[in-house]
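RETRY 2/3 - previous attempt timed out on the joint model. Re-submitting the same 860-residue input unchanged.
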Amino acid sequence: MDINPSSLDFTGYTPTWCAGCGNWGIGKGIELALKKQQLSPDRVIMLFDIGCSGNMNDFINAYAMHTLHGRALATAVGVKIANHKLPVLVTGGDGALYGEGGNHFLHACRGNHDLTVIVHDNSVYGLTTGQVSPTASKGKKSRSTPSGIIEQPVNPLLLALTQGATFVAQGFTAQLPQLAELITAGMQHKGLSIINVLQPCVTFNKENTYAYYIKNTYKLPEDHDKSNFSQALEQAQSVFKERFPLGILYETTRPTYQDELPQLASEALAERGRFEKSVSLLDNFK
Amino acid sequence: MAKQQTAFLWKVGAPAGQGVMTTGLLFSKLCAQSGGNVFDYAEYPSLIQGGHNTYEVLCSTSPVNNRAWQVDYLVCLDKVTLETHEHRLRSGSIVLFDPAAGKISPTGDYTIIALPLKELLAELKANSIMANMIALGASWALVGGQRKKLETLIAEQFGKKGAEIVKLNQNCADRGFETIVGNTTTTITFPWHKPEKTPIVLGGNDAFSLAAAAADCRFYASYPMTPSSSVLATLAAWQKMTDMVVRHAEDEVGVVSEALGASFAGVRAAVGTSGGGFALMTESLSYAGIGEIPLVVFLSQRPGPATGLPTWTEQGDLLFACYAGHGEFPKIVLAPGDVTEMVVLTKQAFDLADIYQTPVLVLSDKFLSESRMVLDSEVVERELSTPPEYGKTIRQVDELPYLRYKNTDDGISPRLIPGTPGTHYQANSYEHLEDSHTTEDPEERSMQVEKRLRKQATYLSNHWQMPSIEGSLERAEYIFVTWGSSKLVVSQARDMMDQPTAHIHFTHVYPMDREKVAALFAPNRHYVLVENNATGQFGTLLRSEAGVDIKHSIRKYDGRAFYSEEILAALESA
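RETRY 2/3 succeeded.
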C-alpha cells in the first residue's frame, strides 16, 4: 500500500492540561522545534515520563514510550544505543528528572548520551495535587510539607553542568520563540542536552506564577560566552538569589556515549545483521 | 603397585588470595584435556583476602553432573583446609599437607603425604603464592597424569604474562610432580587418554552468556551482583567480536529501564542480576507486561533475605520471580536444571520474549551458575547454531491505521520496530486503546487485560513444556520432584539407590498447565520434593498452579547445595 510519511502530523489529541498551564507552551515549543528540523512523527523517538507533562504522550504524535515515573531518561539511554540514527527526546517534570530519577540524571550527564532532555520545572507535583517538588523553594508549604519544606531546592543548571552535560540551557514557557530555538539547538547538539523550562502550575503553585517568572528571569548578557564553563557556573548560581537566566548557558563538544562505542560505528544496532559466529566462542571454554 | 580408579574427587583449600581458583581451574583442565569427565565447583566467602576458599573437581570415566561427598584427594595449603574437610575423608583418602604449616592430629584412617611447600619454595626461590603450583604438580602426579601436560597447560595459561612467569610456574609445578612421582604406593592410574575432540567445560553463567550471544541478544545491561556478575564480564569481554552492547549501568532500575528502551527500539535485550537487584527491577517488569515489550531477565539466586549469604547458593526466589511485578500480566519463568538446559532454555527465552512480547525469566542459582561440567559439544553447537524465532516482530506495515495493541485471537499483536516510515505508536505504561493511546474506558480496559492474559493460554498450548520424566512412575518406590539445579543431585542419588525410583523434573515452572501437571500425580504414590530452600516454594507453586500437594519434601537452606548422600540419609530417617 502507499504510505506517505509527509501525511503524518505531530498534532495529536487536544491536551487536557488546565487552562493557562505552562505545559501548553512547552508542548508547542517541542512541536515547533520538530517541524523546524523537518522531522516527522516516524523519524523521532520521544520518551514521556509520568506527570502532567508526561501526559503529552497523547498530544504529540511520534514513536514514543510513556515510561514509568522517573525512568524516561534511563529508558532513553537504551533507546538511543539501539537506534542512534533517530533523534531521541525526553520530556518529564522536575519531580521525575531530579527526584524519582535523580540517579539516572547524574549518570546520563556523565555518559554524555546523545539525548535532548526537556524538564518541565514548576516546583510542584501537579498530577498528585501539588506536593513540593525537588526545585521548590525552601520553606514552601504544601500538602506533604504543611510546615514548609526543610530541604533547599535542587539547582538543575548547576547539577547538569557539574555532572558533565555538554549542553545546558534554560527556557521559560511564556517565551515560546526562544524556547523553540533552545529545543532545536539542543536537538542539533551532539551529546546530552539539558533544557530546564520554567513553567507555572496555575492550579497548585500560587507563588511561581507568570508574573513571578517575568519579574525574576533575565536574558543572558550579550557577552556571555557559552563555551566558558566558569561563566556558565556563575550564571547558574544566580538561581540561589531567585534570578533565573534564560538561554544557552553552556555548550561544549565531547564524544558522545554512542561515539565511543565501536559497535555503533556504522549501522544502528537495530538495523544490522545478526552475530552468527557464536560457536567460535566455545573456544573460550576448551 | 598403582591401582586403577574410575572416579575420584580432588579438593584444594586455602585462604582467599592464595591462588586456589587458578589451581582448581588448571587441575580441572588437566583432567578434562586428558579424557576425564569433570564436574567442578568453587566455594568462597564474600571477601577478597583471607577466609577459606575451596575448589573441587570430580573426575570420572563416565559423565558426571554433580559433586560427590567423599574427598579422595585433599590438598591443604593451610591447616584450616584439613580441619574443615576432614569429615569428608574416607579410609584410603590422601591428604597433601606441609608439616611446616602446623601440628595436626589426624582422626581418620587416611594417608597424609608430606608436601614440604615452604622448603620447596625456598629452594625454587619462589613467592609464597607459588605453593599452589607445587600443589598442582603434586596433585597431577598423584592421579597418574602425564608430566608433559603440566608444562603445556601452564604455558597456555600464563603465556600472556611472559616467558619468565611461565618458566617459574612450570618449575614449581614440575618440582611438585617430582616430589610425588616416585611414590607408587599412593598414586593411581586413571585411564587418561587424548579425547577425540577437545572437550568444552561450561558453567551455568558461561552457558547463559553463550546462548545470549547466539540468540541475537544485542544489548545486555547489568549492575554487578554475585552470582550473576561473571555474565557481565564474559559478555563485555566478547563485545568486539559479537558487537553486542554491554552496559554496566548506574543501578538495577537503570539497568532494566535501558533494556526496555533498547528492546522497544528493536534489539533483543537482557539483564542479569540476583535477588536484591531483581527486587529493584520489578516495577519495570510490570511496564514490560503492559507495554508488551520483550525482555529476558537472568536471575541467579543466592541466599537472602537482604544481603544474605552473597557467595553461597539457594533456590529461594522462585515464588518472588513468578509473582514479581504489580498488576496482572503474563510472564514466563524457566528454570534450567543443568548447564545443557541453560543453553537450551536461554535460547528459548529470547524467542519466547519476542513471540509473547512479555518478560521471560531464566532462573539460576550460585551452584548452577558457577559449577562447570564437560558438555556434549555437538548438542551445544547445534543449539547455538539454530536461528532465532522472532514471532510477530514486523518491519513494515501493510495496513493503516497500525494498531500496536490489536485485539487478536492468540492475544499477540504484531510489534512494529520504531522508525518504520508511515506510522507511529507508543509503548504505553498506562492502559491503552488498540492504537496505543491512553484510555480509562472500562470496556477497552477489559479487552486489553483479556488480550494480554490470552498470551498465557497461547503459550501453554504452543510452547510450554511438560516436565521431563525419568524412571517408571508406576513402579517407583520414590518419585522425586525437582525444579532447577536440584535436578543434579537427584539424578546422582537415584544412581546410588537400589529401590526403583522415578524423577519428575520441571523446567517450564511458571505458568504451568494445570490439568497436564495434575495428571502426573496419582494418589497413594510416594512423591519427594527436593528443594534448596526452607519453605518448599515449588511445593507451594504446585499447590496453587496445579492443585497438587506433595507431603514429603527434603529441603536445605544453609547456603550449600545438596549432596546425594544427604538425600539418601533424609529418606532413611523419614
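Chain A has a mean pLDDT of 95. Closing ticket.
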